[in-house]
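#data-curation
PF: Archiving a pair of folding outputs for the training set. Convention for this channel: one message per protein, sequence first, structure tokens after, nothing in between. First:
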Amino acid sequence: MDRPDTVLAGVVEALPVGIFAVDASGHVLLWNGAAERLTGWAAERVVGHDVSGSGLDAPSAARILDELRAGRTFSGRLPAATATGHNVYFRAAPGPGDTIVGMMQDVADHAAEDEAFALLDALWETAPVGLAYFDSDGRYRRVNGAVIDLDGGTVDERIGRTLEEVHGETGAVIAASLHATLADGRTRTDVPISGRTWHGRGPYQEWRMNFYAVRSPEGAVVGGGVVIIDVTTSERDRRELAEVAAQREHALNRYQSLVEATSAAVWIRAADGSAEFDAPGLRAITGQSAAEYAGWGFLDAVHPAHRADVARDWRAAAVADPAGVFTRTYRLRTADRGHRWFRTRAVPVHAGGRVVEWVGTETDIDEAMRARERLDVLAEATYAMKAALEPEGELAALADAVVPGFADVCRIYLPDPAPLRTAAGAVAGRRAVTRVSDAVGEAPPRGERFSLAANHPIAVCTRTAEPILVDLVAEPSPPWRSAPDQESWGAAIGMTSMLVAPVTVRGEVVAVLVFVVCGDRPVYTADDLALVAELAERASVVVDAAVTFQRSRQVSVALQSAMLSDPPAHPGLDIEARYLPAVAELQVGGDWYDAFPLPGGDLAVGVGDVVGHDLRAAATMGQLRSMLRGLAHDSAHGSAAAPSAVVGRLDRVACGLAVTPFTTLIYGRLSRRDGRTLFRWSNAGHPAPLLVEAGGVPRLLGGADVVLGVDPDATRHDLEVELVPGSTLLLYTDGLLERRHDPDDRASADLIALVASFVQAPLGVFCDQLVRANTADTGDDIAVLALRVQP
């Protein structure tokens, strides 16, 4: 059997709350493992040091110590940031002698708060052994109730007096061992003492006593403690002594188990996990009788969805003979026949090297679980809606996200616009989405259209744009009516409550969300109503954005069709073009390519890049493309036909009309002269064209003038190169080669290598590979125009 002082030390160390002690000078004497875990301050950093050095600011520490030295209990949150991030609550009171003892715990652990502090006091007062504390002069400073029970008398007859003054000759015998411990600091265990207390007036008794020293931070002995066990009866009967010792060890283990469990409804079960002992506190929660609870009957109160798993885990824990805490979370049927989330925590009680019983608790965590579920639903639904790109798809994604986690049924109704509604307040429209959980089964088929009376919650929500909570348990026959088949279906699946919430766009309700729970699921509450109101608000924002996006997409598709058409056929040339917008959903951005015939048979080609990646950039691109076409077509002959002249005129017109502040452009003409194909071009700040002659090495065609929109009067130049048969000319925008980080200026070299690796492929495959395999990483638009002179 462990000695009582060892057992008690183990109990203190095993407590799930922090335990500490401070002497009169403010130095820490005790700091258990839970205190280390809560604060992140190791015992070696704290014990023996001033309490303000542990992380608590000096003014706060001084104020707290003054309160405690005045004999008043102090409690509150720890006014310092702990290394662990815990918000720590503590409570301290004057202890034995001039010491201060206290507890601390995580503020979030409300279920353990009051009971944990009460258990510390109860551990001293109700311990099954006598406990006494003496100062350095051998005077009583504190005793527990067991001492009074053992020896009689009162606390007041002892405090401040010596053992000799209280018990005479027997007290002197006890004091000899106490003073020896105070003198040399050594612990003395199992010291046999017998005699009569109260100067011989008490009955003859025999005790086993344990003496231990209490030291200051400097190591000096400042007091002594005594653990007292009455062995009067057991000395007469050794067999009884063993049984009493075993019972007391068992009791101490049970105290430790209860402290570790720390919660409201405490129970004790047999080694195999069955309910051998009654648990009135737990039965008050579940509403079971003692007979219904006994054996494995307690499992009947566990929700059917969890019952098999809980039974399996209990039996597995019993076979495994564990040393740690058994924890499970599940729903329990309560006395009102509803279900709530509970957490069970149990610890095994060992004796003789085996588990002899379990001590545990049930803690109601329903509010915390449902709050977490609401946050999960909100996050999942928000993410799902944002992943869709059109309004009804977003609402369908919302319905998929909430069934079955938050609702058994989710329906979405699309009311007709306000001008189409009747004056009487009835609402009609289209059913958009219905989702039901597997537990409910298929909903009865309905037509696409719906029509509801003015007092129906959906109609009311449509008119008022306010969310509504409907309790179908409190009001099973509401004044509003649904279609008969829907009412019979609702009764069959056991609908219990319903939430209705509006989705608005620019002040008009465009959709109504309906959520339903059935059977034994918890009914909706005001907190759930707040959740669906937030869901509807987020859906409103997303749907509004989706409507705007769809309009933008329609415009962008029209722009794409008008401006990014396939290049025309041209004698002696193969022509291919590719376009990849930065905003893929819009299908168009600020980059463009163009190829069109000119009067006289030449082919005009151009690639440009307007700053931006949105519809505004696309619109500007459309204007510039159209202006370039007109100017090029109107300047097909003479010096005005030179690419530099056309680009200069385009710059002046665009600046004069404030079409664009910044645009790069390559514009050129391909012409046939004396059997030769010539390419003449002007570059307005654009990436250089790239030429690959048949069987040759790719090379950049350098030379560039200022970009458009900066200096419309700047001089511009023309460059010319012959394209021999089999040559490939590549015009492109910077999205094909730009990188965020390119300290070695490798982008152009890598593009040349990429072109070389694919240039022998057919021209269409060549363009596809360039767009697919490029190493650019800026997410910019990409436009590619490739021309190959036929052999």
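PF: Second:
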Amino acid sequence: MPGENLSRDEAHERAALLSVDGYEVALDLRSAVGESTEAVRTFRSVTTIRFRRTGDADTTFVDLVAPSVTSVTLNGRALDPSAVFDGARIALDGLADENVLVVDAQCAYSRTGEGMHRFVDPEDGEVYLYTQYEPADARRVYANFEQPDLKAPYRFQVTAPEEWTVWSNGAGERDADGVWRFAETEPISTYITCVVAGPYHYVTDTYRRGDVEIPLGAMCRKGLAKHFDADDVFLVTKQGFDFFHDNFDYPYPFGKYDQAFVPEYNLGAMENPGMVTFTEEYIYRGKVTQAAYERRANTILHEMAHMWFGDLVTMVWWDDLWLKESFADFMGSFSLAEATRFTDSWVTFANNRKAWAYRADQLPSTHPITADIRDLEDAKLNFDGITYAKGASVLKQLVAYVGRDAFLEGARRYFKRHAYGNTRLADLLAVLEETSGRDMRAWSKSWLQTSGVNVLAPEVTYDAEGRITELAVLQEGEELRPHRIAVGLYRLSGGELVRYARVETDVAGSRTVVEGLAGSERPDLILVNDDDLTYCKVRFDEGSLDTLRDHLGAVTDPLARAVCWSALWNLTRDGLMPARDFVAAVLAFAGRETDIGVLQMVHAWARTAVTHYAAPAWREEGGRLLAEGGLRELRLAGPGSEHQLTWARFFAATASSEADLQLLEGLLAGTARIDGLDVDQELRWALLSPLAEHGRADEARIGEELAGDDTASGKRHQVRLLAARPSAAVKAQAWAQVVESDTLSNALVGAVIAGFAQPSQRELTAPYAEKYFAVIERIWAERSIQIGMDVVRGLFPAYQDRPETLAATDAWLAEHADAAPALRRLVLESRDDLARALRAQECDALEG
């Protein structure tokens, strides 16, 4: 990995030296099918780059990661590949004012989801290809200047097996000579070019509105065609185009709009203009809840927002990654709420997306939204909860601060002013100052250029009659920011917690008196950040916290309830509320939660509370309580309802007793039944998982399940469950598969890691804590950055949650001060999670 890095300084120097007029890329992908005797299966890539020298120097380099280069020609002059190519770069000297570079190379198909990924479907043996480049993997497929500010038009041509179809960013067709040729793109960055090729199942539609007509396509593997609900994908797509055309006043600029759902994808999706790629996990093989459809719709709209924020206007360098990701994350929820059937998307945002942000912003690796990105390794790790979810949360606060109309008008001016160009923070602030009349520099300094999350808490006094005399909001944090918030007062009435007063106010400094609430009757609950307008952690006064302990389920407003759940979880993570108290709230009130997305998040938090934050002496009891509660709610849920399905999955995830495991075996065998519960194939794997973890499903039993689901998804489940079995030999084999071998694909590496560490198997995996610290530097040096991240994060001994593990982590960090900064960041983040768990366990032990 280190030899493939690119620094910000190098990128800036190269951008000052040259501009790119265009690329012509010819790929021959016929080698993707059939047997291969090569150690590394490769394809031919021929790239012609036309570029101009705009600076004084006459030397530069072009990026290419490939096993070999056949020839390099610069302005008709042949260069010796062995002299100019080092495996990651091709050195160029003697540049003219106008240059033509031709590189003929053998590039490698990928098994890691980076570059040109090659997947063989175990169901029918068909081969599928797709590319994934962000932030800098286009150089694994063709020679280029791999940085976002050297935009250029592209012309792709692809030779592929005769029975295949090929897609790229532009519209294409197969010529009489059998070569697919694609229309030239608008000027775009390298990382959003794309090729998808194979025998994909393809469905078409058209978006029409006024003079705008956009051809639509959606595709998946043939084996998933029977599950593919393309009509719903197209519905959300059309609703999104309506919303963005109405609000952006800039028609979609990239011609067609294809959406490919592809296998073994490392991301949720990628915004390649005209050819968006998604993980095929968004094609549901069994029954799922509306929350799953909402997540898919949000992702569709997130990627569509990128057509403007990111593709049309692109950041200069990865420091301003937020200029695309924060905006797309915000616009995904914004458009989802206003243009689709998922009108409560802000509830999911408050409970789910912001939880990701709160965690990331309290890690030692926290950073400002506008980050300091020194190189590509930094960039890869900054696709994180701060860049996405905190950035989106801050934009929601910005809309409250400047007003919706000013915000959208600023976006419209931004697109028109910088179309097909590159921007920095100052460019966006300039248009927002124009449209809002606000001083955006001060706002930016507080919100975009500092890190950390504020804590907002109420401070209230009452008179003798119990009326409020003064209510103030206290703010804590290293940076005391300006917040536009709502404060809500709630009281119990007829068994419900109902809001009876609400005031919007600006909060600044450490203490702000809220005007307009003096004289109000004593509330049972004071909710700071009602309606979730700002980004903060919410605390409660003692009376409000007591109310929530007894009546959280009585909060009638779904968004207010989501904010309360989130606040209680932050108290638990911060070691201020015992984990068993959070579990008690879940057992008492989760059954009344109406929002499925919130319920699923609460379930995940409850499991984390028991496995990581509960005192070790209480873990077994906590797990038993969760399983009992899960089964109770499963039996109470409406037959066939999505609540029933959600509780079924939760029960399976927490089951461990003999009776629980016997019930799961009965549900799988058909000898036990819960009215209305459809045990489809995906649910079967969920029910089988705890049986494997607890030694009730051996290799043969898991193999039987695979025989009934011999698909790519089934194979991932099988691999995960095989690694989850409680055996020292199994753990040794799983470790060797991931650490000592690189033969598994990215998806199967992830499956083995997911199965390896189970909360009930702490003793079995204890020997691997020392081994982990011995191998991670080698793994980071030898594997691709994606696999390196997966291994370093996934195999950290988080279940060895003892002070000794913390000491071992600190020792590694002290002894490896010169390790790659990105590697150290991953270890530091895991160390912080471990330290937080130990603090929470101390808090919980006091309760016991």
